[in-house]
Amino acid sequence: MLRYSVSVALAILCGLLGWATSSDAAFVKEQEKSCVGSLVASTPCNVTGVVANSTLIAVCKLSIGGNCTPTSPGITWTQDISRTHTGLGWVLQVYSALIPAGGAVNTTFTSSGGATAIRIILTEFSGVATSSRVDATAASSGKPEPPFALTAISAGSVTTTAASELLVVGAGTDSDLLGWSPGAGYTFANPNCNVNIEPDQKVCMEYKTSGATGNYTGTLTINSDSWVAAMVAYRPTGGADAPPAAPTGVQISQPVTPENLHFVGR
Question: What is the DSSP letter of 258?
Answer without folding.
Answer: T
